[in-house]
Amino acid sequence: MAANVYASATDGGWDGEAAETRSGTGAPAGGATIDCPDVGTKLTSVPEQARAEVDKELALLDEQIAQAYQRLSASAQQIQQDSGFADSAIVNPLKDKRAATLERIAIAIDRVGDRPEGLDDLAACTLRDSGNQPSAGAEGQDGGEQPGQDQGEGQNNEQDQGQGQGANGGQAGNGPVAADFVDIKNVQPNVNTPRPEGNASRGSFATSCGVNENGLFNSDNVIVAPGVSNGAHHFHDYVGNQSNDAFASDQDLANAETSCVDQGDKSSYYWPVLRLQNGTQEQDAQKPGGGIEGNAGEIVTPKQVTLNFVGSPRDKVTAMPRLLRIITGDAKSFVNGPANANASWSCTGFEDRQLKDKYPLCPQGSDVVRTFKFQSCWDGRNIDSANHRTHVAFADAAGACPSGFRAIPQLVQRIVYDVDAPSLQDGGRTTPLFAVDSFPEQLHKPVTDHGDFINVFDENLMKKMVDCINEGRTCGAGAGEEPGQGEEPGQGEDPGQGEEPGQGEEPSQTPEAPQEEPTRTPEAPQDGNAGGKPGDAGGDDGKGEDGKGESEPPAAEKPTAAPKPGDGSKAPGTTAPEVLATPSSGGGTGDKGGEDADGLGESQAVGTATSAAPTPSAPSQAEPQAVGQGGLADTGAQLWPAAAGAVLVLAGFVVLRRVRRS
Fold it and tell me: Where do Low complexity bias regions lie (predicted)?
């Protein structure tokens, strides 16, 4: 029997617009992008035995789109000269590649379950007008609704990648543009917080894990594409767990070092990096996931990161299962539509005003804020699901979980950046534009922002968290952190309660009960303290953490990320962080070996996929971080012979003087 596992290929467009009608083939005047049905979100039921192979093929679909967009970007002149070029050289070959990949997905599922129906309908892609229409000149920062302009000519150090599809703007020619920004002062307050009811869990638990001052980055995503190098096609900041890359097994995560003050929190918190479009060539400028795929510019280290777990306005919370995976937001929402978007952009002092599809222009003295409010309802069975969504859900507007789901602590992740409002009137030449990393075809749109979380809390610490929240207390190693820097948060802003921070839209509210079979059982692997990546900045991040809280962090712990073996003692900000690109080796996504004539990726183009919980036979392929050479113990071992010699010389001098006097 066949199983229909997908929604309509034309669903999910902005304002109900069908994908096929968004544009015809041929490059629109203002720039174009590739629009393909998102197969991953439509596969809601994949047997566990087929997950590894299906994940590999889904990663290949992303690779094919990325390469098609790169070819589109480089072919503007040919498309202008030949209206059929885009069809013959880009769109049709992409459809053929996708059809072959989708057939392999169907075969993999059919071996162990019911063959999915309708996958063939998801092969076709279109060219979509990016909406980044060129303009004669923007009109300043009075509202941010200015038409897009060619930012590729508005940088201090123009880069070659900015040519081609220049109308899409940005340092690499694929965004952002002026129309992606809006003055926060022109946004009306829009945050609505459910009122707690009788059985509400009113407490909060904070963990403090630094701001990634030690520079741990990669372009992998172990949740979506385990075992696949560069599976994200954009770079992530990582705090907490220091062993997260595409090849990390559950045991690797359990044994890892952590940047969190409370060493009982080895969870992994990661999100796309924010970059200034100022012409800087980062260390990933020529690497997959970085400059090669349109993610260019200076990576900005956050000024502050707060990680708070809050309760439910309706019910007591239950413990998260160990190794629970949650993704909030949609990295492909520019073409998928806003159904799963959960981006929230604002400014300190204005956090009662949240933006979903615009970057904020903050007034002087106010900082840019990204907020992620993760799903707070769990199905009680699975730690992951085939599309990485249906095992968790958002509560409704009143704070109630869908039927069959139970309330869990809600992670509220707040990231603050000290970046100035860009000068839109000159395309960012005076003050550069900023944008999050994205898939190349998503054009760095703010609506594509997203966050990822893997729960690796010690079970005892998780119990303390649940007790704290349910008893209405404020606990945790990060509980002393201030909610903002500078101005007070806007009226009505409450980072501790409420679900959707966007403009009245509630992504994926009240989903249907998941249909997939249970994934890995949430049994905890044994804790250990091996396997962490070496290197840590160690220094004071200046975020005002007081180390207090009922989670009992280690005694005498300073309010910074805990030092780890191999600590280089590098002060934050003294050197540029090392960018840890994951190389595309062997069959990796970036290595085509010259065999793919149309550049859209064959099946073997993706790194060998492992199971959902891979156990690598070799160390991670990420480059090692810079580690300081030698510590105090090493220095002492080298200096004590010299010190002893000095003492002997002084003693001899004293004896000689006494002999002369006698």
Answer: 147-162, 552-565, 608-626
In angstroms, the CA 607 to CA 288 distance is 13
Beta strands in 83-152 (DSSP E): 116-117, 126-129
Question: What pLDDT was estimated at residue 197?
Answer: 87
Q: What is the DSSP string of 249-294?
A: -HHHHHH--B-SSSTTB--EEEEEPEEE-SS---TTTTSTTTGGGT
173-220 pLDDT, tens digit per residue, is 888 999 999 999 999 999 988 888 889 999 999 999 999 999 999 999
Calculate the CA 238 to chain-centre distance: 8
Element (H, E) at 347: strand 345-347
Q: Is the dihedral of CA 19, 22, 27, 30 positive or negative?
A: negative
* Residues 6 or more apart whose Cβ sits within 8 Å of residue 164: 73, 74, 75, 76, 173
The distance in angstroms from the start CA to the end CA of the chain is 111
Which pLDDT score, from 0 to 100, does residue 571 have? 36
The amino acid that residue 271 corresponds to is W
Structure tokens at 179: 């129309």
pLDDT of residue 130: 85
**Type of residue found at 298:** E
**CA pair distance 134, 177, nearest whole angstrom:** 9
Bridge partners of 475, per DSSP, are: 205
**Type of residue numbered 555:** A
User: What's the CA gap between 601 and 70, in Å, rounded?
Assistant: 12
Mean pLDDT throughout 536-564?
39
Nearest CA-CA partner of 609 in 67, 230, 100: 230
pLDDT category, 332, cuts 50, 70, 90?
A: very high
Spatial distance between the Cα atoms of 266 and 264, rounded to a whole number of angstroms: 6
**DSSP letter, residue 90:** I
For residue 256, give the nearest of 525, 45, 70 by alpha carbon: 525
pLDDT tens for each residue of 464-506: 999 999 999 999 988 876 554 434 434 334 443 444 433 333 3
Q: 287-313 burial string, b = 16+ CB within 10 Å, else e?
A: bbbbbbbbbbbbbbbbbbbbbbbbbbb
Residue 515: how many CB atoms within 10 A of its CB?
Answer: 12
- Which letter, b or e, does each residue of 40-70 get, where b requires 16 or more Cβ atoms within 10 Å of its Cβ? bbbbbbbbbebbbbbbbbbbbbbbbbbbbbb
Residue 206, both tokens: 């904070």
Distance separating alpha carbons of residues 636 and 633, to the nearest angstrom: 5
Least confident of 16-20, 119-123, 140-144, 521-525: 16-20
The rounded distance, in Å, linking the Cα atoms of 613 and 441 is 29
**By the 8 A CB rule, do 326 and 392 touch?**
yes
Q: How confident is the model at residue 395 (pLDDT cuts 50, 70, 90)?
A: very high
Show the beta-strand stretches assigned E in 41-190.
Answer: 116-117, 126-129, 181-183
